[in-house]
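Hi R.,

As promised, here are both runs. First protein below:
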Amino acid sequence: MFSAMATKYIVLVLAFAVAIVSATEYRRPPPRRSLSRSLLKDLHDIDSTSPQQVHVSLSGENHMRISWITKDPTPAVVCYGTYPGSNGYSANGSTNTYNYVTYQSGEIHDVVIGPLNPNTLYYYRCGVTSSPQFTFKTPPSLFPIKFSVAGDLGQTEWTRSTLEHIAKSNYDVFLLPGDLSYADLYQPRWDTFGHLIQSLASARPWMVTQGNHEIEKIPAVHPESFTSYNARWVMPYEESASPSNLYYSFQVAGVHVIMLGSYTEFGSDSTQYRWLVDDLKKVDRTKTPWLVAVVHAPWYNTNEAHQGEKESVEMKNVMEDLLYAARVDIVFAGHVHAYERFVRVYKDQADECGPTYITIGDGGNREGLAKRFKDPQPKISAFREPSFGHGQLFVVNATHAVWTWHRNDDDIDVASDKILLRSLVSTSTCSLNLN
């Protein structure tokens, strides 16, 4: 725990840094081109049995899920160890494919491996023994831990800039609050997205939830929603007793993270609502003092974009009380292509026991930025800027964390917004009201 003097010093340093950045004139650069066409050419050169679009995710305590795609059938097996070239351990998994109108996916493999040691570098191969060797690092089991956060990624030159900055952040777990590939019905864009992010997603766990661009439902042609998303991005929903891959939870190093689904049923009589109630009851704040929620459509938003949508307004009306009563510390959202951070808030008013709401839907998609905010700026909106970027949540210990938003438009990493956060369970006026 920080001493009182150390905490005061950190607050002063952060305030000074933000003041300096805010005082600097910033000229926003122009849009950049899409990468999907050039990435598609790269995919044609990959051998038919070589793993592509490799990504890893957390899968229950001390386990990881390895996912990859091949053009032709290969064994769903992962060999791994703790030194280069090692194959001391192996695990088998499953393979699936899907059809979407005229598109036929490749062979999608999923293998869960473990138990694994925390904060350890592992070497692994997917499928055939001649495949390239990859590495990933498991998250720590104790504080500190760093999360990198970015929503609405897409696959443009801005996406590449964002990913380059994230790669330098030395993060442990990546959180993506929806809108991944921006395939928007054109399925090869799912493949190019997987290719674009592989260098990062194969090395650290990526935990995602769905956005509106993942729905991909075509009435009378393809009536099923989330076909591609559910086939390609299997999350640990079963491990968290969820009936759907569209919402789940996981915990790592003292942080319990709830990934909610904006575009599936969320009413008070829905399975998602009932699951959320049960999941919150299971949270032990002595083991996971930090509680974080991730959703796509923001519940708080002062941007002119995406105002009044039911996925925001109605979901907030139904679930805000649950998150407030559980003392959720932070709620991340995407959807709006800009950055905005709110003070701790509840029922549209500043409340020291409410979550800090952060919209970070500015990863780099082709639709561009949402540049128009409501004027004047409401008091509950602490910082807002329509720029591409990503965020870093550095959870120092059970009581304190540092949130930083990094504007990536500059092609250099500019920390434009910083704040020191204190966990609600360590705040006596809030923890006393916990059930």
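And here is the second one, sequence first, then its structure tokens:
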Amino acid sequence: MASSTCNNSFSSNYMLLKPEEAGFVELTKILFSSDIAKRKFVDCPEGIEEPFGRRWVIFVSVLAQKLLQAVAQPLAAFGSGVEHWLNLLSANGGFFRLLLNSLKGKVIQPDITSANFLSFIGNIDKRVELDSKIGNKDRRYYSALAVMAAKASYENHTYIETIVKDHWKMDYLGSYDFWNDYQEKATTQAFIMEDKRDDIIIVAFRGTEPFDADAWSSDVDISWYELPGAGRIHGGFMKALGLQKSQGWPTEQADNKPEAAYYAIRKLLKERLQKNDKAKFILTGHSLGGALAVLFPAVLALHEESWLLGRLQGIYTYGQPRVGDEKFGECMKRTIEKHGIDYYRFVYSYDMVPRLPYDDSTLMFKHFGTCIYYNSSYEGKVVDEEPDKNYFNVIWIIPKIANACWELIRSFTISYTKGPEYKEGGLLRMFRVIGLLTAGVPAHCPQDYVNATRLGSSDVFLSILGSNDREKLLLKKE
């Protein structure tokens, strides 16, 4: 049903899903009629007809969003309970010490706002220190720093500030909860820090938390918008970054609205970079955070922010899903090349998320940029596309099970072969067991991405560079 919800000056070709307006009967009708504009929960131009395959995906997307919103509160409450229990165990030194403290009446209760409180993701990998063996002249430095920032973005504001200041010895510029105009609440998180020793500012977007229904809704929302000359882009990710309802991407955000991620971060970057002509910035994120990191420069290009794009050193994403179609990818390639931006998309083993949404005739999502793929031995190589690009190909079932078995065994030996800092706890081992059934779940955890950037050879970056850049990088290392 066409409406004024989408500003046609922003995008004349779009499909916006509105699950709040979809009753079950109305939702099922989309499976029996190719004219999707007749459905009141679909906002698109009149006359658009879609084949059954795409209508089925729309049906699943809307149903998933409705279910997520229905369970949002109990899911959040369950997640809070799990995190409280994990932190209760940690604060009291483990289960048996907790029992002892209970008998003594001296149980230490965790404080959710403290620097010691870890999220569910943080409990999977508790490492806070940067690898002392990777200095700023090492070719792995930015990737190793970026993945730790991406991992830290899942934590509370106090934790992030403490890590940045006390452990990494960098300037903390702020940790924020940004407004999502479509969800009508602050559901997008990011933090910003600056390393003045290297004249670099790092912007880290938070990924999808396991018990956050709003973030999951952004992931499964397959609404799309076609930017003029730039192709189709995943609508859920655009909304999380700061798309304005009924306005699209105006050059400036309206003053009467809470700050959205794109506008607030753009403003802060301009202020900081204007104070230091040598400084540049990096964008990073894991999972959903990676999608936001790569879409940020796309909107900068839309707004012709050439000065800021010229100061963008690189984009480092980990387990990033696909964000647009082939035309969008080609447009971003031109933007990246024009401004000399490094874009590295890291994929570990059988991580499911980089293989979604599908690259097929139904969804037509495409990756772009440099893909650095690591196998389960943390051997990296540059590839055009990760193996089993849509994940569910049956010929990969046996290799996935074998790999999951190896990862489970490795979890008990890695601290002896690689060092105590690589020790894996019970929570991650539980995920390794899940991997025997669904290999893509444990492979998405930040733990393996941190390991890959530390244990993988730095030579993988040399294969990406041209001869002149290779010589410069080798001279820098020396």
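A quick note on the second one: The first strand starts at residue 14 and ends at 17. Let me know what you think.

Best,
J.
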